Structure formats: structure tokens, C-alpha cells
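hey so u asked for the seq, here:
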Amino acid sequence: MPGNFWKCVSCVKMEYNVEEGRLPREFIEYDFAEDAMDYETQLAEARDIKFTQTLTEPLCIGSHIICTGTPTENLPWFAINIGCGNEDSERADIAVHFNVRLPQCYVVRNTRIHDKWGSEETTAYRLFPFKLNRPFTVEVLVDEKETLWAVDGEHYCSYAHRNPSPLTATWIQVTGIRDAVLKIQKTDLYPTTGPPIFEIPLRPSISHPRNEDEPIWRPNVIAKLSNGITEGHQVVIYGRLRPTLHSFAVDLMDVAREWPRANILAHANLRAHADSQLTRQLVVLNARLGAWGPERRQRTARLVPATHTTLRIVRGSGEWLFYADDVLIGELEFRASPNGVKALRIRGDLYPEEIFLCPSSTSPVQEK
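ran it, C-alpha cells below
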């Protein structure tokens, strides 16, 4: 799309000095109909640029698809499709449609059966990772109940199997990328090109300053706790909350990896989007030991978007205690031996700046 069409209202006001309720002459004379026609032409061109690989054997659990390519300025979107039937037909069934829309900066996932699309999914664990003229690597991992999608080595989203399932697919197709390359194989690990996994450092107290050799933490991080969390100790996470706070999750796991799936001995999920008009945010506590157990739900958190916060997970005598800015927001009884904790994972709208272990004896505590 031409740049003018995609400018936000604030940008238009700054560039043209627009008063509220008025538009500049240049903007009034802009031919939106012609622009929309250009966009439809680009979409048609993108559909005509396809690379299809026929599957010689069905996809199965552990099937690993790697797609590389470079988005270009004259093609506003591209898609990776896993489907069945006649791949040259516009009515072929598509089990998974991964549609990257660069002008809008989001990715749509969907399924098409009998020429009808289902409901779209757009939420993701990361900010939009694609850029024009920059090569990408997308990894797709087929699991029992869903596909997992990683971009440039970092997990981006998951998509639950619908009807048809990708396990019945006969082809994989990339549209809108001129230099697309596909590789299909089996894997024992996902993602295969991820960043290094760091050990969480130990500090003598919560007030001790950061050591110079501590890692620089990334969003959606997985980190090691090789020696676990001993009783009377805690994991401290200091980080920034996203301005449009939606949700985030913190997991204590038995192994530091995304897939094959680790057991989650303690899971804390803050859902700021659920009844967001209420004064307290929803906290969901659980554990996944092969399957999810019963949830504990409580509206106990008062986190402020676009600010820094300190989360603490304390190992007690028989439970995990979760604190946000020194306020207790939940307790979860041990559902497996706490000695099994060997890793920490953070997902979503909490961007960590410091993560460390320390004794919990000197940390302040407030009432709910």
C-alpha cells in the first residue's frame, strides 16, 4: 500500500497540522478508491506467486517445516498454507493458513473447509517480527493437538488443529514470497535455531545490585534453574509491563525447552483483558503434569500498564507463593515435588530486565 493510506491519525495531524474535525486539502483529494484497487491488484499478484511442495508422506507428531524467504515492498502480505485436495484450486481445503499482513503488522491464522473460512486467530506471544526486505525463518512444529510456530528462532504462536487437521495434509504452499524455500523433516527439538538458554544467577539478597556478568534477558525467555529453588528461596523477576497490557504467564518447569513439552510445576497467568474494567486483575494458578489440573482463580493483582513491576515466586514449606510488588496475589499447593523445578519461562506482556534467585527471608510482604 502507498504510505499515505497507512498513516495513523496522529501522524496525519503532526505532518499536516490538522485541527480536530478538519482534514487538509491534500488528504481530501487523495484517491482512496484508486489505492484500494492497487491493493487488490497486489493481493492478486501475491496469490499468483506460489511455491508448492507435495508431501511424499503424511505429517505426524514431530514433523518440522522450515520456510525461509524475504517479504518485498510490492507484495503487502504472504501466507504459508498446509492443505489437502487440489492445491491449484482456490477452493482447496486449508488445514492451517498462516497469513502475514505487513501493512497491519499482525498475523492471521485460520482454516478453510468446503470454501468456508473459520474464525480468525491473531493473538501472539511476541510483537510482530516481520519486516520488509529482511529475510525470515519460520519453523512449524506439528504436535498432537496443535501446530507451533516460531519466527527467527523464537516461539511466536500456536494453532489448535481444526477440521481438516494438518495430519491429513497432502501439500504445503507459500504464496507472496518470490525466494521462498521449504524444508520438511523430523525433529526432536523446537525451535531449532533459538537463542542461548542462560542460567538464572544467585544473589545474596533481594536488594543486592545486579552483577556485571548477569545475562541480558529477552522477552518470552526460557532460563535454567539447574540447582532448583531450595526452601526459603525465591525467584525474583523485575521488568516492564507492556503499555497495552493483555496477559502474561510465568512457569516453573522441569526442563528448559519449548518442545517436547515440559511439565509445569507452577503456572501463574495474569489476565488483564478479562473484565478489564474491574479494579483488580485476574490471576490464574495451575500446574500441568501431562495435563492441566484444576485452576485457582482470584482477582488479586493491581498492576499498572507501562510501568515496572517486581514479581516473586517463593518456595514455602508446602506451597508456591506469588507476589506482585510485595503484595501476595496467590498460593498454589505443591502438586509435584518442588525439587523438580529446573527452569523458568516467561511469556507475554512482561519484558524482564532482571531475573535472579535469592533468599526470601528479608523480602517485604503486604496484605492482599
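The mean pLDDT is 88. Residues 32-48 form the longest helix (17 residues).
lmk if thats what u needed
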